[in-house]
Design goal:
The chain has 6 helices and 5 strands; from the N terminus they run ααβαβαββαβα. By secondary structure, the chain is of the alpha/beta class. Strand 4, helix 5 and strand 5 form a beta-alpha-beta unit. 33% of the residues are buried.
């Protein structure tokens, strides 16, 4: 019998939320640096953050935008993000981004997606929803694992 047991991704991230920020994670740290380097000088009216996790990039997004809507499917991650981010221009919502997003058409001028797409089977839907919610001339920022990392078997992991 294997010492490892399959866990639903949502349950895993709820459990991981308590140590996610303190665990050694070079991918998470690199993602945060890249997001800061690429976005810090941008100014937006509204940002939709997909998979906000514990809010590692949410504070930056609140600084560059008048309004941020941060989504995640993990209640544990959202709880940590709320505690970390005290900006009045940020709202958090539990949402499954593989289903229609809780956003109006053409309501954001930036969609941000960091370290989320490796969990998504139908990327076409994600980009179609992005096209639906973005205003004309808006931006879609994606920061993701290089596919070769996944081909090598690299996966998100944590210890209980």
């Amino acid at each position: 019998m294997s010492q490892f047991q399959a866990v639903k991704i949502e349950d895993a991230y709820n459990a991981w939320s308590s140590t996610y920020d303190s665990d050694r994670n070079r991918t998470r740290d690199l993602d945060q640096q890249v997001a800061r380097d690429e976005l810090q000088n941008l100014r937006c009216h509204s940002v939709l953050e997909l998979g906000c996790g514990t809010g590692k990039n949410t504070t930056l997004l609140a600084q560059i935008s008048e309004r941020v809507c941060s989504l995640d499917f993990s209640a544990g991650m959202i709880e940590k993000a709320r505690a970390r981010t005290d900006s009045p221009n940020v709202t958090f919502e539990i949402a499954d981004i593989t289903k229609r997003w809780p956003s109006n058409d053409q309501s954001f001028d930036l969609v941000v997606c960091n370290l989320v797409l490796e969990h998504i089977e139908d990327l076409g839907f994600i980009f179609a929803e992005g096209a639906r919610v973005l205003t004309t001339g808006a931006r879609y920022f994606v920061c993701e694992l290089h596919p070769f990392r996944q081909y090598e078997g690299t996966q998100a992991r944590f210890e209980r």
